[in-house]
Automatic annotation (TrEMBL), chains A, B:
Family affiliation: Belongs to the gamma-glutamyl phosphate reductase family.
Name of the protein this chain belongs to: Gamma-glutamyl phosphate reductase
Domain Aldehyde dehydrogenase: 7-284
GTP-binding is among the record's keywords: no
Pathway stated in the Swiss-Prot or TrEMBL entry: Amino-acid biosynthesis; L-proline biosynthesis; L-glutamate 5-semialdehyde from L-glutamate: step 2/2
Compartments where located: Cytoplasm
Keyword Cytoplasm included in the entry's annotation: yes
Gene encoding the protein: proA
């Protein structure tokens, strides 16, 4: 039985210690962690082999096995990832604003760590080192609960990071791993309000919904993206085709891929056959409403649930709309508030779309695939928030911080 | 039976409409609301009379009745409050940052409304107009669920605001009131995830804990303040006495009042008797640990629970500490992360305290009573957040906003 109370208490204590380190000290420890990952390549590969054997005996699909599989190169990339995060600007300690109020108090808003961050994830072992180093750099301790598929890899990676911390006189409890993948333990983690300051689920829609509905700890929702591209009546066929092909097919399994194409009725008859040609060549299967079907011989008829499905696959829903207003209404009704794009030459359409679409990222004449912390220039990301509180969109280091007001007085009292 | 689903749906629809208003339009509607409050003074007083009669028959304390009671002046002040909020700078539409990324995309982070805000409150009727106008100005629609003590006043006030909106061709559902003060309805509100973007409880610790533990909607915790003042060994008696007297006695019933005095052992024997004299004159009852009791003839012995009690009354706990480290450890253990102060002449003590205390506001040589949106210069506040996510400390208009990334492209696709 995993003692989550103990893990939580250790994390909280380590957080107090970690909050006092300066940037140089944190970076040195991250460097030690990166070196430790490299130095333990052999052991990590052995642990990963156990995961792969388990995957075989469970008949896991090849594509999933590839996500799971570590190689020397992939382990080197994990170490590089840690080093990259050590080089990012440390947000902690920044005074965002500082002003003198009417009482003569000097008031500053200072960036501080959140404290203890819980991460429940399903995906690849590199999430372990990425999440651990992002939390560490931003002054937070982390409790990781990974999926059972990569259990042995994750467990070994965390023990390598802990050993590096320990050897360098820092609390190994800054990065902890829950070595129990049962649902009971995950549910218990969601109620660890005494110790966890926030819980970030990373994975599929099912995981995220489950965490959101059951957690008593504050949650930052990430990731699910039922994204749309709307092709306006004033738009260029070439640009529209390139953007929809990129957003759908460049990497269909990710959350910023496009799932539904909306197109204005005035260009549908001319554009859709050309777009279909390109998409079919890329292996995309189309599901169209009745109107769009008239122009799309390869499409099968879309069902109601297709409008709300995040396919994450070579499938695209297509719908013809009467107006930009209908497009916006459709998007705001069905989307998951992730990434939305319009293709248009019209100034007023672009502004209307930017203003009225409710999503973390709204694009004019660009692919939705750009919603990404690296692309935005944050250097790295812990996930993409699709909620409105605290952080929205790609979450870099700053999204892992809070603030406190620091106030310098000279004996002031309130009248 | 109150139909919360319907109220939620109406609020969501009105939010879409409200998000499209410009600042001038919002300000004009706020002005209409203020005028309507003034024009309905007689009706509001009558409704308030029903609350006062109910209070009488329920044997409510005089001090509580005074909080409940409206007068012509107090109603005029409510209208002025609405006008004041209309004059504050509108945060909506501000582009916080805008930059060009490596792909040539111009990325901006734009401030947008959160959407629908729920407020559960126990306090005075003026919270109704304050909360409604703060939410309105920041582009959010609001669902108010007030306490039963001020039910008739709240209900009438909201109907006055709604009539003003309606008369001016705007959806009255921008400000809604739940005319049912049952616990069942409050609990149902806490689970209204489809429509409520955030829930802000305003009231006592019991209410806030209940909401935090039961809500499925994201919550911003506000208000409870078990605050401390630590008198360092290098400090001035006069300043220490003035600050502690102000923080404890100027208005003991508020969340930024001080509840525990910590004092360094080296000055305890000299300072405490003088401080006691001042505090006793102000009617303060002291509860001291054994050590402090030696210097405080009027004090009774503190019990363990006194260290974690928010007295909100003329009561102060007092403890002698060996060092600033002990003071910081005590505070971080018992505080509610609201407001904490040190009185010191020592530079290093001041920096240590500012760095190591975990609270929304940390003061050097000033009273904790300053933690307040008006005092900080925000013009108004919806509450004081004691959590770390989204907003921390006094919450002005900006704390009622979210952001979205807007991205201007020229046909870019991801490589």
């Amino acid at each position: 039985m995993t003692d989550l109370q103990l893990i939580g208490k250790q994390a909280k204590e380590a957080a107090t210690q970690l909050a006092l380190l300066d940037t140089k000290q944190k970076n040195q420890l991250l460097e030690h962690m990166a070196t430790a990952v490299e130095n333990n390549t052999e052991e990590i590969l052995q642990a990963n082999q156990m995961d792969l054997e388990q995957a075989d005996s469970n008949g896991i699909k090849e594509v999933m096995k590839d996500r799971l599989k570590l190689t020397e190169d992939r382990i080197a990339a994990m170490a590089d990832g840690i080093r990259h995060i050590s080089q990012l600007k440390d947000p902690i300690g920044t005074i965002e604003h500082m002003w003198k109020n009417e009482d003569g108090l000097t008031i500053g808003q200072k960036r501080v760590p959140i404290g203890v961050i819980g991460i429940i994830y399903e995906s690849r072992p590199n999430v372990t080192t990425d999440a651990a180093s992002l939390c560490f750099k931003s002054g937070n301790t982390v409790i990781l609960r990974g999926g059972k598929e990569s259990f042995y890899s994750n467990q070994l990676l965390v023990s390598v990071l802990q050993e590096a911390l320990n050897k360098n006189q820092f609390s190994p409890y800054a990065v902890q791993f829950i070595d129990d993948t049962s649902y009971e333990t995950a549910n218990e983690m969601m109620e660890l309000t005494e110790y966890l300051d926030v819980l970030i689920p990373r994975g599929g829609a099912g995981l995220i919904t489950h965490v959101k509905e059951n957690a008593k700890v504050p949650v930052i929702e990430t990731g699910t993206g039922n994204n749309h591209i709307y092709i306006d009546k004033d738009s260029q066929l070439d640009m529209a085709t390139e953007i929809i092909a990129n957003a759908k097919a460049q990497r269909p399994s990710v959350c910023n891929a496009c799932e539904t194409l909306l197109i204005h009725k005035e260009v549908a008859a001319f554009f859709l056959p050309a777009i279909e040609e390109e998409l079919v060549e890329l292996g995309i299967e189309l599901r169209a409403d009745e109107w769009a079907s008239e122009y799309l011989p390869s499409a099968r008829l879309a069902a109601e649930e297709d409008w709300s499905t995040e396919f994450l696959d070579y499938t695209l829903a297509v719908k013809v709309v009467d107006s930009i207003d209908e497009a916006i209404a459709h998007i705001n009704h069905y989307n998951t508030k992730h990434s939305e794009a319009i293709v248009t030459d019209n100034y007023f359409s672009s502004q209307k779309f930017l203003n009225e679409i409710d999503a973390a990222a709204v694009y004019v004449n660009a692919s939705t695939r750009f919603t990404d912390g690296f692309v935005f220039g944050f250097g790295a990301e812990i996930g993409i928030s699709t909620q409105k509180l605290h952080a929205r969109g790609p979450m870099g280091l700053e999204a892992l911080t809070s603030t406190k007001y620091i106030i310098y007085g000279e004996g002031q009292t309130r009248k």
